[in-house]
Amino acid sequence: MKRLMLYVVGIMLCYSCANGQTSRTDFAVVAKPAAGEEVATFGGGCFWSMSEALSELKGVNKVISGYAGGTKVNPSYQDVCTNTTGHAEVVQVYYNPKVISYPTLAEAFFFAHDPTTLNRQGPDEGTDYRSIVFYRTPQEKTMLEQAAAKVNASKHYNGKVVTEVKPFKVFYPAEKYHQGYYKTHMDNPYIAGVSEPKVKKFENAMRPYLKDEYKK
Questions:
Q1: Which pLDDT tens digit goes with each residue over 18-36?
Q2: What pTM, to 2 d.p., does this model score?
């Protein structure tokens, strides 16, 4: 569904690159962590809703939408949509570990999407929408596995968690128009019909951890 809605945008981007040159100025920039910040990378379907959900948590300072898990260097949205790059839509989260712990962030990730559906989130289907999370240390891997086990034991979902847990290698930021897309496109039918219900469900599940402005 989302791909159909971005078809026109894709045509425009392809036209602008018709001369064979791809401008990286159309893409966001990977930020360096500030002093005291740590970084986590999660993929759970469309990054529009995942970015919005995790940005609402206390202790989360910044979220960048992008691509990870594949082989193509500097992929575009159109590249990833082909399901030939190995990349998934992901978000890179910059957070203060003194305010929100990694286990809590991992728990939030599992509530921000359905981690039991293989290569699919709602109407979005394909490996680029798969549930995937990247660890940077052996300790993070253990915490992710524990979080997944906790979700399975809770019976919150009908199925079992199928999230890929992989070592982090590289994150490629997505195009600038994807950044903060949720808040600036609330009139988009996809946002209203697919993304917003996911975010509202997330807010109900993680209410104690939300920033004050999202507790209303």
A1: 333 446 789 999 989 999 9
A2: 0.89
